[in-house]
Design goal:
Blueprint lengths: L19 E6 L3 H12 L4 E7 L3 H12 L7 E3 L2 H5 L7 E4 L6 H8 L5 E5 L6 H11 L7 E5 L6 H9 L6 E9 L14 H4 L2 H4 L2 H11 L2 E2 L5 E6 L15 E11 L7 E8 L9 E7 L2 E7 L3 E6 L19 E6 L3 H5 L15 H17 L10 H17 L5 E2 L5
Helix pairs in contact: 1-2, 4-5, 9-12
């Protein structure tokens, strides 16, 4: 199923050959979203290779290309064929199933190319450790940018910009109320061995946001989780012995550089909440106020705590007159991110955040080509730390803190 695409291709009258040469490995749902945005930046990047072993996925990707004023890329069904053309690639997008991300990075890391790798960058402790070791070897040459599109969602970006207004951060709550996982080829996203389970597969996005919001690291030894497994998918026939997690609470403290843990976080996930008013909610409470971001409403609400002068009689609740609310409409992506140039405007699956991700990625790649240092917004270390939190949270469930509802 392709994104709801309305092309606004930025095609110049003369296209020179110094555009960034791009290849996409994996042309399923996320691969197609990336294709759609690449088409919108066709004055900066050209799509030379599409690779996927499944003909249906390649056919759907080809349909996107056919609908655009764009040259025809090479269509490959074997990664080995793509590897043979590594010297013709500046930027590789890895959008294959999650369990393939680390093995793919290990093969491509020895090439002098930039790689945009979809999350999660690994799905197990073994993959995590193997990737760290490989990235430290002298032959490792690739430059990595881990795809964390949620960072660029307009309401989330606005919330991040307002954090200084609410004082010292004390509590961060992220809630996702959504529909079950969509069906993918071979149901790989319902196989725990191929995803690391839901707290790694899905929630690494949110663990990345926790780190980004707090600017602190999670104390992994104190991460705790309570979860339920796939019984809540009642209308589906589960083909695996152990179903994936479909609801969870994860709590975590954040440790500052001075060693103090004075900020706490809670993730709430429910994957059988179709029709919920808000699919994502981010609530950040500080010493001076509170921020609330809601999606898909795409608004941020800011509240400032009343001062002692405004709320003098503490034997009664604060007067409504001293509760100050500001509402920020985040529907204009360019305004929120301060981008003057035109960017592709279709929604895709992530509130147009992938367009912003590509805007910054292409700028970073071009700066590198011009002789500057490559500076990713989301490094390999960032991607791995998000996975670490998910792995740790999942591991706590082995202590019996998981239920299939039959014992409740």
């Amino acid at each position: 199923m392709a994104p709801n695409i309305h092309h606004t291709p930025l095609v110049p009258t003369t296209i020179e050959d110094n555009r960034i040469r791009c290849a996409i490995l994996g042309t399923g749902m996320m691969g197609q979203e990336h294709i759609s945005y690449i088409l919108g930046y066709s004055d900066e990047v050209r799509l030379d290779f599409l690779c996927d072993p499944f003909e249906k996925s390649l056919t759907e990707a080809r349909r996107l290309i056919m609908d655009s004023p764009y040259h025809e890329p090479k269509y490959l069904s074997n990664e080995e064929e793509l590897l043979a053309s590594a010297g013709e690639i500046d930027l590789l997008v890895i959008a294959s199933p999650n369990y393939m991300h680390t093995p793919t990075l290990l093969r491509w890391g020895v090439y002098n190319i930039t790689i945009l790798c979809e999350k999660p960058v690994s799905v197990s402790q073994d993959q995590h450790d193997e990737l760290i070791a490989a990235s430290k070897l002298p032959e490792w040459s690739a430059r990595l940018w881990i795809a964390m599109e949620y960072r660029y969602i307009p309401a989330i970006a606005k919330l991040l910009s307002l954090l200084p207004e609410i004082g010292e951060l004390k509590m961060v709550t992220i809630r996702e109320n959504r529909y079950p996982f969509l069906h993918k080829i071979g149901e790989w996203n319902r196989d725990r061995s191929k995803t690391g389970d839901t707290l790694v597969e899905k929630c690494c996005h949110f663990f990345d946001l926790f780190r980004l919001i707090t600017r602190k690291e999670v104390d992994l030894s104190k991460v705790r989780a309570l979860a339920q497994r796939g019984i809540n998918y009642g209308h589906e026939n589960n083909q695996f012995d152990v179903p994936i997690l479909d609801s969870a609470y994860v709590t975590m403290p954040f440790r500052a550089e001075d060693g103090r843990c004075n900020t706490v976080g809670c993730l709430e996930l429910c994957m059988f909440a179709e029709g919920s008013r808000h699919q994502e909610e981010i609530i950040v409470t500080g010493s001076k106020g509170r921020l609330e971001a809601y999606l898909p409403e795409n608004k941020v609400f800011m509240y400032r705590r009343p001062t002692m002068e405004e709320w003098q009689d503490r034997s009664i609740p604060p007067p409504k007159s001293c509760i100050r609310e500001q509402v920020f409409d985040c529907s204009n992506v360019k305004d929120i991110h301060g981008i003057a140039e035109d960017i592709p405007t279709h929604g895709g699956y992530h509130y147009c955040s992938t367009a912003v991700e590509w805007y910054y990625l292409l700028a970073a790649v071009q700066k590198y080509k011009d002789g500057s240092k490559f500076q990713p917004h989301v490094s390999l270390s960032d991607g791995l730390k998000a996975v670490e939190i998910g792995i740790q949270a999942t591991s706590t469930l082995a202590d019996g803190m998981v239920s299939d509802c039959r014992d409740i």
